[in-house]
Specification:
Elements: E1 2-7, H1 11-22, E2 27-33, H2 36-46, E3 50-53, H3 62-71, E4 77-82, H4 87-95, E5 100-103, H5 108-119, H6 127-136, H7 161-171, H8 176-182, H9 187-201, H10 206-215
Protein backbone atom coordinates (compact mmCIF):
# COMPACT_ATOMS: atom_id res chain seq x y z
CA UNK A 1 0.00 0.00 0.00
CA UNK A 2 1.42 3.38 -1.05
CA UNK A 3 0.53 6.15 1.40
CA UNK A 4 0.13 9.69 0.06
CA UNK A 5 -0.04 13.16 1.61
CA UNK A 6 -1.86 15.66 -0.62
CA UNK A 7 -0.47 19.20 -0.42
CA UNK A 8 -2.47 21.89 -2.23
CA UNK A 9 -4.05 25.15 -1.14
CA UNK A 10 -7.24 24.57 -3.14
CA UNK A 11 -9.82 22.36 -1.37
CA UNK A 12 -11.45 21.29 -4.62
CA UNK A 13 -8.11 20.20 -6.04
CA UNK A 14 -7.37 18.17 -2.90
CA UNK A 15 -10.82 16.60 -3.07
CA UNK A 16 -10.26 15.55 -6.68
CA UNK A 17 -6.88 14.01 -5.88
CA UNK A 18 -8.32 12.17 -2.88
CA UNK A 19 -11.17 10.69 -4.91
CA UNK A 20 -8.77 9.48 -7.59
CA UNK A 21 -6.23 8.00 -5.18
CA UNK A 22 -8.77 6.31 -2.95
CA UNK A 23 -10.24 4.57 -5.99
CA UNK A 24 -7.00 2.57 -6.20
CA UNK A 25 -6.58 -0.64 -4.22
CA UNK A 26 -2.87 0.01 -3.68
CA UNK A 27 -3.06 3.64 -2.47
CA UNK A 28 -4.21 5.36 0.70
CA UNK A 29 -4.45 9.09 1.43
CA UNK A 30 -3.14 9.66 4.96
CA UNK A 31 -3.70 13.40 5.11
CA UNK A 32 -4.16 16.75 3.40
CA UNK A 33 -2.16 19.94 3.84
CA UNK A 34 -3.02 23.39 2.50
CA UNK A 35 0.46 24.95 2.70
CA UNK A 36 4.13 24.11 3.07
CA UNK A 37 4.23 24.51 6.83
CA UNK A 38 1.42 22.00 7.30
CA UNK A 39 3.11 19.67 4.80
CA UNK A 40 6.32 19.60 6.83
CA UNK A 41 4.49 18.97 10.10
CA UNK A 42 2.26 16.24 8.66
CA UNK A 43 5.15 14.52 6.91
CA UNK A 44 7.01 14.31 10.21
CA UNK A 45 3.92 12.89 11.92
CA UNK A 46 2.62 10.53 9.24
CA UNK A 47 5.73 9.55 7.21
CA UNK A 48 3.83 9.04 3.94
CA UNK A 49 5.55 7.27 1.06
CA UNK A 50 4.82 10.19 -1.26
CA UNK A 51 3.97 13.86 -0.76
CA UNK A 52 2.04 15.19 -3.75
CA UNK A 53 3.28 18.77 -3.59
CA UNK A 54 1.81 21.91 -5.14
CA UNK A 55 4.31 24.73 -5.69
CA UNK A 56 2.55 28.03 -5.25
CA UNK A 57 0.77 28.20 -1.91
CA UNK A 58 0.29 30.96 0.69
CA UNK A 59 2.98 31.17 3.34
CA UNK A 60 5.68 28.56 2.85
CA UNK A 61 5.71 27.40 -0.77
CA UNK A 62 6.19 23.89 -2.10
CA UNK A 63 9.84 24.40 -3.03
CA UNK A 64 10.96 25.31 0.47
CA UNK A 65 8.69 22.65 1.97
CA UNK A 66 10.33 20.07 -0.31
CA UNK A 67 13.81 21.23 0.71
CA UNK A 68 13.00 20.92 4.41
CA UNK A 69 11.30 17.53 4.07
CA UNK A 70 14.21 16.07 2.12
CA UNK A 71 16.87 17.59 4.39
CA UNK A 72 15.12 16.12 7.44
CA UNK A 73 16.07 12.66 6.24
CA UNK A 74 12.47 11.46 6.23
CA UNK A 75 11.77 8.57 3.86
CA UNK A 76 8.98 10.53 2.16
CA UNK A 77 9.55 11.21 -1.53
CA UNK A 78 8.18 14.40 -3.03
CA UNK A 79 6.34 14.56 -6.34
CA UNK A 80 5.93 18.16 -7.45
CA UNK A 81 3.05 19.38 -9.59
CA UNK A 82 3.86 22.12 -12.08
CA UNK A 83 2.96 23.50 -15.50
CA UNK A 84 5.04 23.88 -18.64
CA UNK A 85 5.19 27.65 -18.22
CA UNK A 86 6.64 27.25 -14.72
CA UNK A 87 9.65 25.11 -15.59
CA UNK A 88 11.91 27.24 -13.41
CA UNK A 89 9.91 26.09 -10.41
CA UNK A 90 10.24 22.48 -11.48
CA UNK A 91 14.00 22.96 -11.74
CA UNK A 92 14.12 24.53 -8.28
CA UNK A 93 12.05 21.66 -6.94
CA UNK A 94 14.39 19.05 -8.31
CA UNK A 95 17.36 20.90 -6.87
CA UNK A 96 15.54 20.96 -3.53
CA UNK A 97 15.42 17.17 -3.61
CA UNK A 98 12.09 16.32 -5.22
CA UNK A 99 11.95 12.93 -6.87
CA UNK A 100 10.16 14.26 -9.93
CA UNK A 101 7.48 16.49 -11.29
CA UNK A 102 4.27 16.21 -13.28
CA UNK A 103 2.22 18.71 -15.21
CA UNK A 104 -0.78 19.71 -13.14
CA UNK A 105 -3.26 18.84 -15.87
CA UNK A 106 -1.79 15.35 -16.37
CA UNK A 107 -4.19 12.53 -17.15
CA UNK A 108 -5.32 10.52 -14.10
CA UNK A 109 -3.38 7.44 -15.22
CA UNK A 110 -0.22 9.55 -15.58
CA UNK A 111 -0.59 10.89 -12.05
CA UNK A 112 -1.16 7.41 -10.62
CA UNK A 113 1.81 6.00 -12.54
CA UNK A 114 3.94 8.91 -11.33
CA UNK A 115 3.08 8.33 -7.70
CA UNK A 116 3.83 4.61 -8.01
CA UNK A 117 7.14 5.35 -9.74
CA UNK A 118 8.24 7.84 -7.10
CA UNK A 119 7.26 5.46 -4.29
CA UNK A 120 9.60 2.81 -5.72
CA UNK A 121 12.49 5.22 -6.27
CA UNK A 122 12.10 5.51 -10.03
CA UNK A 123 12.03 8.64 -12.17
CA UNK A 124 8.69 10.20 -12.99
CA UNK A 125 9.56 12.34 -16.00
CA UNK A 126 11.13 11.00 -19.15
CA UNK A 127 14.94 11.28 -18.96
CA UNK A 128 14.97 13.31 -22.19
CA UNK A 129 12.56 15.84 -20.67
CA UNK A 130 14.75 16.06 -17.58
CA UNK A 131 17.73 16.77 -19.83
CA UNK A 132 15.88 19.57 -21.65
CA UNK A 133 14.80 21.06 -18.34
CA UNK A 134 18.33 21.09 -16.96
CA UNK A 135 19.74 22.44 -20.22
CA UNK A 136 17.20 25.26 -20.19
CA UNK A 137 18.31 26.32 -16.72
CA UNK A 138 21.98 25.40 -16.93
CA UNK A 139 22.89 28.90 -15.78
CA UNK A 140 21.73 27.90 -12.32
CA UNK A 141 24.47 25.30 -12.07
CA UNK A 142 27.65 26.32 -10.24
CA UNK A 143 30.24 27.83 -12.55
CA UNK A 144 33.30 25.55 -12.62
CA UNK A 145 36.59 27.11 -11.65
CA UNK A 146 39.71 26.91 -13.84
CA UNK A 147 40.98 24.00 -11.74
CA UNK A 148 37.79 21.95 -12.20
CA UNK A 149 38.36 18.68 -14.01
CA UNK A 150 35.18 17.09 -15.42
CA UNK A 151 34.33 13.83 -13.70
CA UNK A 152 36.88 14.26 -10.86
CA UNK A 153 34.37 15.12 -8.16
CA UNK A 154 34.91 13.14 -4.90
CA UNK A 155 31.32 11.86 -5.14
CA UNK A 156 32.38 9.78 -8.14
CA UNK A 157 35.48 8.12 -6.69
CA UNK A 158 33.70 4.93 -5.61
CA UNK A 159 32.26 4.27 -9.07
CA UNK A 160 33.77 1.70 -11.41
CA UNK A 161 34.60 2.73 -14.97
CA UNK A 162 31.43 1.03 -16.22
CA UNK A 163 29.29 2.75 -13.58
CA UNK A 164 30.80 6.10 -14.48
CA UNK A 165 30.05 5.42 -18.13
CA UNK A 166 26.44 4.54 -17.33
CA UNK A 167 25.99 7.58 -15.08
CA UNK A 168 27.21 9.73 -17.97
CA UNK A 169 24.66 8.36 -20.44
CA UNK A 170 21.90 8.48 -17.82
CA UNK A 171 22.74 12.18 -17.54
CA UNK A 172 22.52 12.44 -21.31
CA UNK A 173 18.95 11.20 -21.18
CA UNK A 174 19.33 7.56 -22.19
CA UNK A 175 16.69 5.16 -20.94
CA UNK A 176 17.60 1.72 -19.58
CA UNK A 177 16.49 0.18 -22.86
CA UNK A 178 18.71 2.52 -24.86
CA UNK A 179 21.68 1.84 -22.58
CA UNK A 180 21.09 -1.89 -22.95
CA UNK A 181 20.97 -1.70 -26.75
CA UNK A 182 23.82 0.75 -27.32
CA UNK A 183 26.23 -0.71 -24.76
CA UNK A 184 25.28 -4.33 -25.50
CA UNK A 185 24.22 -5.12 -21.95
CA UNK A 186 21.25 -7.05 -20.61
CA UNK A 187 18.61 -4.66 -19.32
CA UNK A 188 18.72 -6.39 -15.94
CA UNK A 189 22.45 -5.64 -15.83
CA UNK A 190 21.78 -2.00 -16.60
CA UNK A 191 19.24 -1.82 -13.77
CA UNK A 192 21.78 -3.35 -11.40
CA UNK A 193 24.42 -0.80 -12.41
CA UNK A 194 21.95 2.09 -11.97
CA UNK A 195 20.96 0.80 -8.52
CA UNK A 196 24.62 0.62 -7.49
CA UNK A 197 25.26 4.13 -8.81
CA UNK A 198 22.37 5.47 -6.74
CA UNK A 199 23.61 3.69 -3.63
CA UNK A 200 27.25 4.72 -4.02
CA UNK A 201 26.52 8.38 -4.78
CA UNK A 202 23.70 8.76 -2.27
CA UNK A 203 21.26 9.74 -5.00
CA UNK A 204 17.62 9.25 -3.99
CA UNK A 205 16.52 8.31 -7.50
CA UNK A 206 17.39 8.54 -11.17
CA UNK A 207 16.53 12.22 -11.45
CA UNK A 208 18.97 13.08 -8.67
CA UNK A 209 21.58 11.00 -10.52
CA UNK A 210 21.01 13.14 -13.63
CA UNK A 211 21.56 16.27 -11.57
CA UNK A 212 24.73 14.72 -10.13
CA UNK A 213 26.02 14.05 -13.64
CA UNK A 214 25.58 17.74 -14.41
CA UNK A 215 27.00 18.97 -11.11
CA UNK A 216 30.15 16.87 -11.52
CA UNK A 217 30.51 17.89 -15.18
CA UNK A 218 30.26 14.35 -16.49
CA UNK A 219 27.62 15.92 -18.71
CA UNK A 220 27.92 19.44 -20.04
CA UNK A 221 24.81 21.52 -20.89
CA UNK A 222 24.22 21.52 -24.63
Amino acid sequence: MTTVLIVDDQPLQRFGFRMLLESQDDMAVVGEASNGTEAIRMTAELHPDVALMDIRMPGLDGIEATRRIVSSGDRTRVLILTTFDLDEYAYAGLRAGASGFLIKDAQPEELLAGIRAVATGDAVVAPSLTRRLLDAYAEHLPTPGPETIPGQDPRLTSLTDREREILTVVGQGWTNTEISTRLHLAESTVKTHVSRILAKTGSRDRIQAVILAYDTRLVEPS
